[in-house]
Amino acid sequence: MNSIFETIMIVLGWIIFIYMTSVILTYSTMLIIALIQFKKIRNLNVNEQDDEYIDTMFSKPVSIIVPAYNEEVGIIDSIHSLLSLRYPQTELIIVNDGSTDGTQDRVIKHFKMRPIHKVVRIQIKTEPIKQIYQSTIHPHLFLIDKENGGKADALNAGINLSKHPYFCSIDGDSILDANSLLRVMKPIIMSDGEIIAAGGNVRIANGLDVQLGSVLGNGLPKNSLILMQIVEYLRAFLMGRIALSKFNLVLIISGAFSVFSKKYVIEVGGYGRNIIGEDMELVVHLHRYIKEKKLNKRIEFVADPDCWTETPHSLKDLRTQRRRWHQGLIESLWKHKRMTLNPKYGAIGMISFPYFWLVECLGPIVELIGYIYIIIAFFLGSIYYEFSFLLILLFIIYGSVFSVASILLEAWTMNVYPKIGDLTKIILISFTEIFWYKPLTLFFRFEGMIRFFLGRNDWGKIKRKGLSKEGISK
Question: How far, in Å, are 32, 338, 343, 458 from residue 350 at the CA level?
């Protein structure tokens, strides 16, 4: 019996070791690709480029759609940031998806809105619209009051009302820099229609000074949980998405800030209503449509434009968010599972789908087993010590080393953390990730997997504090 147990432990140790080594090699490749990409743009004067391209924007007007459900604390700041965008031709559509708080009343009162009669062309089926409002001080600002149908349904309602060929989806608790829309649209305009969707970079605004929709200063929050989320966002956006986007392999562009060609979104039926990860599902569906129709189109991630968003302040809210994200990931992959290892879908089917299945989807199971294995191995002694120390080393490389690399890459290219004290603080806390934050998020993601198998589809609630009320860490 002991020999069987020892064999199982050794085989399991090797499986975890090979898996983690493969993941580290994959992320190392992504880091190198991201480094090369950033090196090309580091010395470019982006503000000067904005001035050069702004006249071209008249040919690509954009409808901005903001789905809002109980976003009372942050919706006014978000709208102010969108009204201040440096972009020639936009309309702003707020979609109140049956909020039970004061979201709608605040918007109507603050922007002096009045009910209007406007014909809506139903291109995508949605829950009934009760009333449409228009601002008397900002004529291009509209509010849709509709029955609750979820975020995807709210976005679809906004698409139906929109009049421009491109639309930008923004979360109700998010804020854009003045040049963000200009920069995320730049590759779409320069590609002459080849790029049909683009997503911008998402940063965490908790702890920053936000006034009338503008983010002032670059201070760090005091909350360690939020600091770890900053590290996590840097690693995900600056490494993973830049590398995948380089080869048209990205399956996720954040729903918090993304631009789409309305024509192609309508072609695939809009956002999926009965799925939690509606933003990923739309991107995957577009990739599938492109390949099946043999179209020369791309979907890209753009690192330069910034969207600032509020992230969970507590473990309870973080748990709700991460298990929702992971469940949405699995739902999207499962819905389009026929694309996996299917040469008909090119590199998306042969590379991107296997990566998301093996690394992003199944990763929490393997890594959780790895943590448990390390604990058991320390009690067993002998050869298990070697395996446990080896796995600890791999976890440190996978977690902390790549996190530090992403932070330094961010500081080198974007100059977001110019203060040595801030940079040191965020690097130091990244080394603690594998001891508390990583195991927690792995467990939360594993819960999301269980919820998928159980068929649970409720979103859960996340408490918002609002960005304007946050203080700056000096």
Answer: 21, 11, 6, 32
